[in-house]
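User: Working on a comparison across species. This one is PucR family transcriptional regulator from Streptomyces swartbergensis. Can you predict its structure so I can line it up against the others?
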Amino acid sequence: MAGREDGNRQRETPAGPGPAWAQELLEHLRPAGRDLRRVVDWLSGAVRGSVALQDAAGNLMAGTRLPLDEDLVTDITAGRIASAAWESRERHLRLVRVEHPSRTCVLAVSRETPFDRRASDVVTHTAQVIELLLAARESTAAGHRLRRATSDLRLAILQLLMVEDTIAARRVAAGLWPGLLDAETACVYVVESDPALRDRIAEECLDSTREDALVVRCPAMDGHVIVVGPRDTTGEALRSLVGRHPDIFLGGSVRQSLARTATAYGQAVSALAVAHFRPDKTAVYAERTHPERLMDPEGLRGWTARVLRPLDTLPHHTRAELLATTRLGLEFTAVNAAKVLGVSRNTVRARMERVEALLGTDFADLTVRAVVHLALNTQIGLPDAEFTGGTADSTLRLCDLLSGPAVRTWAQHLLGRLDADARNPRRTLRTWIAVGGNAERAAQALGMHAQTVREHVRSAEPVLERQLLAAGTDLYEVVLAHLAVGDLDLPVLHRHD
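Assistant: Here's the predicted structure for PucR family transcriptional regulator from Streptomyces swartbergensis:
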């Protein structure tokens, strides 16, 4: 009777006789069909029984849990036996060892009728397919973990560069990318794409630069890939990449020391905005005349030393941390600065508030932000050793630095570009800056709509060739120009200037 039931069973199985079931099983090895649960479900239907795939600890990986003899399972997972069969009047059971890269599993099949040759072959071959699927899944998972760890390491290196810790950045990079940061200078590039394409673009950046550059998925902007390229060939490789894709853009900085990676990053973001209007979709930051280069060098150093002197009482690492965070916080929003640094936005705000308290000022004032930004940019370009002797004792004040003929000429020429516009955007811009960049408050002061204020400020951007609605170097230079021509009052920092 059992034999007849087996014969009926073979005719009823959905898998079909002979090679048909083997063909169905092989289909599960195709990329679209690699699913352990589907394989186990298929096996259950092919032998008309219950199937369980479990590990040595008894954890069910797929199928339906079956009552199994623990000692027998242990013998199989320990490798003492490769398979086992057990039967009673009501149940027939087959157990087969399934090799796994990290742990051995057991495939158990239970059915009411005895196992004939066909059913035994189906179980054996299914176990082999499961082994292949487990190995592939383990390999894929290991590859994913490795890529994730490598990506996290690249981000950590970038974050160290952003806070000027070049020694630690080189030490971390040396393990996986020897020589990557041996150069003293680098250019920073930002590649922008659709966020859905970013992972593929990041991989292409790695391939294009042959891993001679630090490629990081930007933690702040979903569509951005940041590339720190010490080699001269990096820019050309990235431009070639942009040429192959219709919808990506590239912004690059001028060459900067590794300690000024944050400054270079800001330049690359600024250039990226220009790239959107270029036929080749690429732009390099324009090395224009910056106001600090028109000031008396020794006087600027001495003034910077006095402005930042309240921070000199702090331990060196604390001082460096506060200065680096404040520099990024002035360039970007607190949220984006936090993502770039790998800390919380509350941490960024707390550090900046501590600097505010030490300097005795308020970063809500755009003139304050511009002046502190000037001091920080001067400080980062000069070793602490240079703030000594007569330089540190210089008595030149901010008003003296901004009143020099070269600075005033630069400022008048820059803001004078707006005078040809009959809408008087220069007045709007001045008022907007005075109220902290708040369009609603500026609109109230000017008696116009807030949207009109925004339009005036936005229209001034291409004329001045600077981004104004986003905080950063461009905006702060325009603020300094207003201070130099006397259109805005000079801010006061801890009653020393």
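For your comparison, note: DSSP finds 21 helices and eleven strands in the chain.

User: Helpful, thanks.
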